[in-house]
Write a structure and sequence with these properties.
Elements: H1 2-8, H2 41-51, H3 64-80, E1 83-84, E2 92-95, E3 97-102, E4 109-111, E5 114-116, E6 123-124, E7 140-143, E8 163-167, E9 191-195, H4 198-209, E10 212-215, E11 229-233, H5 238-242, E12 254-259, E13 264-268, E14 271-278, E15 289-295, E16 300-306, H6 307-317, H7 331-347, E17 352-356, H8 359-378, E18 386-392, H9 400-407, E19 416-422, E20 440-444, H10 451-463, E21 469-471, H11 489-493, E22 499-503, H12 522-540
Parallel strand pairs: 7-8, 8-9, 9-11, 15-18, 15-19, 19-22, 20-21
Antiparallel strand pairs: 1-14, 2-14, 3-10, 3-13, 4-5, 4-12, 6-11, 7-12, 14-18, 16-17, 20-22
Helix pairs in contact: 2-8, 2-12, 3-8, 6-7, 8-12, 10-12
The structure holds zinc ion.
Residues 295, 361-362, 395, 423-424 line the site of zinc ion.
Length: 561
Amino acid sequence: MRGTRLVAVLTLPLVAACGGSTTTVTEPPAPRSATTAEITPTDLRQRISVFADDSMQGRRTGTPGNAKGNAYIVSELGRLGLKPAGDGGSYLQKVPLSSYAPDSSRATLKVGSGELALWTDYHPYQAEFAVPARPIGGSSLVYIGGPADSAAVPPREALRGKVVVYHSGATGNNLGAPDVSPEGRLGLISGIMVTGVDTLIATYAQVFRTPRVVVKQNQAIPPGVTQPRLIILPSASVPKLFAKPLDQLRPGDTGPALEGEVSFDERDLGASNVVAVLEGADPALRREYVALGAHNDAIGIVPAVDHDSLRAYNTVMRPRGANDAPGDPDAGQAARIRAMVDSMRKLRPARLDSIVNGADDDGSGSMALLEIAEAAAKSGQRPKRSLLFVWHTGEESGLQGSRWFTENPTVPRDSIVAQINVDMMGRGGPRDEATRDPGYLQVIGSRRLSTELGDLAEAVNREGSHGFTFDYSYDADGHPDNFYCRSDHYMYARHGIPIAFFSTGGHRDYHQVTDEIEYLDFDKYARATTFVGAVARGVADLDHRPVVDKPKPDPEAPCQQ
Ligand SMILES: [Zn+2]
């Protein structure tokens, strides 16, 4: 059973997530006036002022703020007269996302006279929730050493119902847990505690605490199939189990029975994609679709920080925001940060901020799609093929909305001739990176399945005088950022649908509370939106579907560009 096997090769997801907040959601500001048919900076500002307002609480998947953001999109789609293409004649497609969090009300484990406190003395982790985890209450402890001690591991039967403690010593994002598959030497254990991974714990402590959001698949798990409970254990907790430190333990050493249990509470998030169709004008071709995608979710609420101090720090230390690791500034850097904060203090007092508004990521893409829909709906000249607009949820928690949509498409999947994805469309100019020209645009994946699609994007840029300079560098094979695999377009490409991903690029406010409306470049944003709309129309009006001249990927294979 894959679930169990997963433990052995467990690699923790590189997803930065943040704790939720219970602050109440207030009403978003009412739109001042109706938007126009044209794609304009004013319209985009008006839309984003609603969609990325603090009242949306950072639109984390499945939260009231995310639902409110979707409600704004739905109300606009109704106003523009697009055809609902979600579930049951609505614009919403439910994505069965559930969140799992340890039941903290009864998470204290006891060992002899000692207690293990959740998140301090131990971190429960479960990669897969479809397979039940075995109970550990009453199980006694056995130390089995590390990778070099496999010969000294007690026999399979002797470990039945035990909780084993394994000294991994792995670094990076791989836990380095041993094979616990049912047929293996550790196949009968009730649980495993992996220790000697303090660096990993330091990096992922916040991830462990964050409720895991997973798409609830209707997987038929055969009766009796279970997995061992996995616990990640700081080295400092070992003496609480064995009354001696880790480096004095020998394989086979035993400890008293555990008291208490670890369990995860499940909560249905009620998350939704928003899906709409602008029907094409050509009676035959309108049954084919050009899909346009953006993600309606953002990061949500994070521990409050001073907005300007964070921005000054990131300007110097993390010019690509969450894509850069934090670090300690040296004297020169600290002075620069100090100077920036001082100059801000002259303008305004400190302002605490805990909402990752996601104005650029991906409020900009989501509102660009609405403007493109409005322009096409009011243009009086509809494209030949239909335009399929999908606002995916769950992108930040693992491309979950787009995976669900492409596995449960509301139009025949093979009638989707191409997908155009936009994520972070409102920045990336000289204000963000001095070397960049105002026409900077990142293009990823546009020739990875169809050379013709990539050529078409360039022709539209040239012939329409959109004036963009395409940066293909992030599309290079092996590029460390791996962006081809990191946004919703890949869920279409994995099924052989040619995609083109457009972004104005990264910046210091990526996944930060500082990703605010005030830093968007609305002129560029409107030009980029107009360009993307023109590409979509270019594909929709072709007399043939874009030719797929490159090999289609294995949809189940892990993605590595
Ligand atoms: Zn994004």
